[in-house]
Amino acid sequence: MKLITRVLLMMVLTIALPTLAQENGNQVSQELPDRVFAADIYIQRGLPTGDNFVGNGLSNGTGFGIRLQSDIYQNIYIGGALSQDYFDVKDEQAIGQFSKATKFNAYFFAGYDYVINDDWNITADLGYGYSQNKNKQDFSQGGGTFKDTGNLLRITTSAEYALSNSISVYLSPSFEKVFYNIDAAPASGDNFNVGNYFNLALGFRFNARDYNSIPLNTSDNQRIQELENANRDDLSIREKRELYFLKKKEARKARRERRNKN
Predict the structure, then answer these.
(1) Mind listing the pLDDT tens digit for each residue in 110-121?
(2) Nearest to 174 by CA among 47, 68, 50, 85
């Protein structure tokens, strides 16, 4: 699980760095380009809830997570995520003879991204996957470890604020229901079958956007003329990149117009 988390974190960084470079090479348009891909990294507070072994036995915990998502059609997106949370035991009689639990989730999700304006988005998605609690005893309890596994159903929402075209910050409430595969005594009823968690996360979202979807406007054409009329040796690296991307956009527009005429 540690290897998977590291690999996914490297993927987030691999996506985030070119995304930042892309924005530096493009002027921030008054019309926000469509988001085609996003990578999230966040920290969260996990609150076990419900009248079951999780809600009665675990204290509130903290954790982190990583998400990758891709838009597939008109703000509908799909993706995958990993998260890990750390809890202390508050009642051994309710949950069992161990002192700490580490919860790992791996799941896929699908959802909808509602764009309020260029600054604010609201997202909501439904996820399903795998969940595992790794339970650890302290020395006085024997020092052993054992695992409880199950199927995860998760509802995630977020309110997102755009710091720039490439980076957003968001607040994300979510609710998880884990259907555990635990062989418990019949007398315990459904107490060990299901665990509920409410989470509140704060994170950053790195966005890859389709700048090709934004046509050249009058200000773009004026900017191209300004940069072309200037002495190239006097242009900064950022201005040279800006001119390069604007010229590419101009060339794509010309190709589209030629195809439409044919």
Answers:
(1) 999 999 987 899
(2) 47
